[in-house]
Write a sequence for this structure.
């Protein structure tokens, strides 16, 4: 856990004034999920992804999603080699440990769906053959607000593959002052030292999966799930798979706090980032505000 704490502190020197978002990103990775960052350009989404890979010693690839991108540009393609008389696989950028899908909603739905199998099964099917992806495998996708021109909204099936959705937002005044007066973030990133090996991260992921969920905490999670399914609040409530996502993310958050069991505070901390992108408000009110009310009214057993 010491190496993880060092990674967290180091990343906070790169992304200033956003400790909560950084901790959520770590919890998402430890829970073996994938992260969607939705925000306007220029607030540090790409820098966070690159920095996270650097401090954890993970291989990193970035794909800029555009309207003319093809699935083969992500997965790779088999090319016939005349000398050997065989097809040789030229692996795409998805064969990495941290994949940044930058501005994912600028690509067509066909390209967006090319990530579905990789994110869910951690494998890629190319020309009828299935290829395992490296471990750990973590997708960070950035998304521009839907009202911007040239974007394709992510379908519900794609959104559900992301464990969390977060926003960075503008930095606090003092943090932005430090950005203006400090060195370029890319120069700072180049000096980052990895604080752990990929094998250590895999061990942490296994440890997080073993965090205990008491019967009382399971009842609390069930109460939250059932509250989202009441008529009139959301178009549809959270699914059983969303419930599993809540439990996994809470386990990751608890492990970051150095605990081997869940507390209600762990569930509350991750509830909105895990649930909001899976719901649509029935009243037109912001989903986040409806979830805040729900958290306030659902009793803790």
């Amino acid at each position: 856990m010491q190496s993880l704490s060092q990674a967290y502190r180091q990343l906070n020197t790169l992304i200033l004034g956003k400790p909560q978002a950084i901790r959520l990103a770590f919890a998402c990775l430890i829970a073996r999920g994938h992260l969607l960052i939705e925000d306007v350009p220029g607030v540090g989404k790409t820098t966070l992804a690159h920095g996270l890979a650097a401090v954890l010693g993970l291989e990193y690839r970035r794909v800029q999603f555009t309207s003319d991108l093809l699935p083969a540009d992500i997965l790779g393609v088999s090319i016939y080699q005349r000398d050997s008389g065989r097809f040789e696989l030229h692996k795409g950028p998805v064969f990495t440990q941290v994949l940044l899908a930058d501005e994912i909603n600028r690509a067509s739905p066909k390209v967006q769906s090319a990530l579905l199998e990789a994110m869910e099964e951690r494998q890629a099917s190319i020309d009828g053959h299935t290829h395992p992806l490296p471990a750990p495998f973590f997708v960070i996708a950035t998304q521009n607000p839907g009202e911007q021109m040239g974007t394709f909204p992510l379908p519900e099936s794609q959104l559900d593959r992301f464990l969390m959705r977060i926003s960075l937002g503008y930095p606090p005044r003092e943090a932005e002052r430090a950005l203006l007066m400090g060195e370029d973030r890319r120069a700072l990133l180049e000096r980052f030292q990895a604080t752990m090996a990929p094998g250590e991260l895999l061990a942490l992921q296994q440890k997080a999966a073993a965090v205990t969920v008491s019967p009382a905490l399971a009842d609390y999670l069930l109460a939250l799930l059932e509250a989202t399914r009441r008529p009139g609040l959301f178009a549809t409530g959270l699914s059983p798979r969303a419930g599993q996502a809540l439990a996994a993310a809470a386990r990751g958050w608890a492990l970051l706090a150095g605990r081997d069991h869940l507390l209600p505070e762990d569930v509350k901390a991750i509830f909105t980032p895990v649930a909001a992108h899976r719901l649509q408000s029935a009243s037109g009110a912001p989903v986040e505000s409806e979830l805040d009310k729900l958290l306030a009214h659902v009793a803790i057993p």
Notes: The mean pLDDT is 90. The two ends are 30 Å apart (CA to CA). Strands lie at 35-38, 60-64, 76-81, 86-91, 98-102, 123-126, 129-132, 138-143, 164-166. The chain has 14 helices and nine strands.
